[in-house]
Structures are given as structure tokens and as C-alpha cells.
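Take our chain:
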Amino acid sequence: MRAHEPLRSRILWLFCLIVLLTWTCAPLIIMVSTSLKPPAEQLLSPPSIFPVNPVLDNYRDALGRSEFLRYLLNSLLIATGTTIVALTIASFATFGFTRVQFAGRRLLLVFVILGQVVPLAAIALPIYQIASSLDLIDKLPFLVIAYLAITLPVAVWLMRGYMSSIPRELEEAAEVDGCSPLGAFIRIVIPLSGPGLAATAAYVFFLTWQEFLFVLIFTTRPENRTLSVGIMDFVGQYETSWGNLMAASVLMAIPVILIFLLIQKKLISGLTEGALK
């Protein structure tokens, strides 16, 4: 009986992995399949998993809308801007938490992570009141500032977990050669934190790219929307263009998939070595 236990265990794990993979990939498969179906196939009962006569009309219709390209540009600008600003602030905050000894450091770290616990709906109204009083509604740069409230807490913790594992002796050696503590941090620690920076950048970019609530609340003009809200144009009051909606969703997912494929090694290394520590 014992000789068969490893085989049974492997079969059980393989079955669990297949179930998990199916559960994870099923929405993506349905999304891509629907985006390639003509209107006549989209409402078949029972529905077909794969398109019988695949077409690219849905993609042409989605890309043919001038608003779609505007939404895409807004998403790229906001996600990229938030990532750059969040990485800069998180890096210097990490310098304070890992290299500077001061009273209340641990307590301050607790308050930083508590900012991530608060639901978005709870902070949306105060942020809206601030934006309204400063006449910042419908201003794309303000969205970058608003997103810092939800991305910085985890960004600081990810960066701190990784940078704290870098030996302090490397900076001390640079300081002996004439570098200031901040200069040693920028010239030595930051370059060695590539995986941690990649993991943090990916987290911030992915979260900002797909965020829906803040864009819906803080923008009123269609030209200021991002893809996460803009693709709702394909949902009408009486009818939903499922093919166009799924095609737009696929196009929205492509940049995230490409970025993940490009930095997956550094992303995994940064998450495992930094976040766990």
C-alpha cells in the first residue's frame, strides 16, 4: 500500500492543478472565444465554447471607435505616471524605514499597512470632497495622486521587505569611498533592488490599469475616462454588444500580459525574496 501512496499523491495533486487551471483559464477562454464570434453565434443556446466561423469584425469595431484609443492613452498615462511616482516615493520611504533608526518606526509601519485595509468605497468620498474643493475633478493628474492612496502602502512593504535583505556593509563600503548615505542608497541599493522594483512596479501598474471606482467617480467627461470604464460604452440600455465588449476586454488585457511576460522572472523573484521576508 505504501508503494502506491506517492503515485496517488501525484495523481491527486495533478487533478487539483487541472481543476485550478480550468477554473482560472475558463473566463479568459470564453472572453477570447466570444470576441471572435459573429453576432449569430454569440447568443446560441447551448453556447459553443469555440467559434465555428471566427471573425475579426468585433476587433475592427472596437478599434474603429475614436473613443477607444483615447481611453487606451488615458490608461497608459495614468498607470505609467502612478507607477513612476509610487516607485519614487516608496523607494525613499523604504530608505527611511530600513536605514534610519527613529522612535515609532514600527508603529508607523503598522499605520502604513492599515491604509491598505480600508475599502476603496470608504476613502472615495473624502478624496472626492478634497478634489471638488480644489477644483480637481476631471483632471487626469489628480487620478495619479488618488491612486497613490491605494498603491503606496503595499509598495512600501514590498520594497522594504526586499531592501532590508541587502547587506548594510555594501553601503558602508561606498560611504568609506566618499558617498553620502543617500548617495550610497541610490547608487548601490537601488540597482541591487531590481527584482523588488519590478514586483512593486507590476503591482502598482496592474492595480491602476484595471481600477474602476475612482475613474467612475472622479471623471465626468467621456474624454477623461480610462479603458476600465470606457469599455462600458458597449453595454447599452436595451442591448449589449457582447462581441465588441469581449474584443475590447481582450485588447485591454494584452498590455498587462505582455508586461508580465517581460518581467516575470524579476517579478517572481521580487515577490518571493522580498514580500515573504
User: Anything to note?
Assistant: The chain has one domain: 59-275. The mean pLDDT is 82.
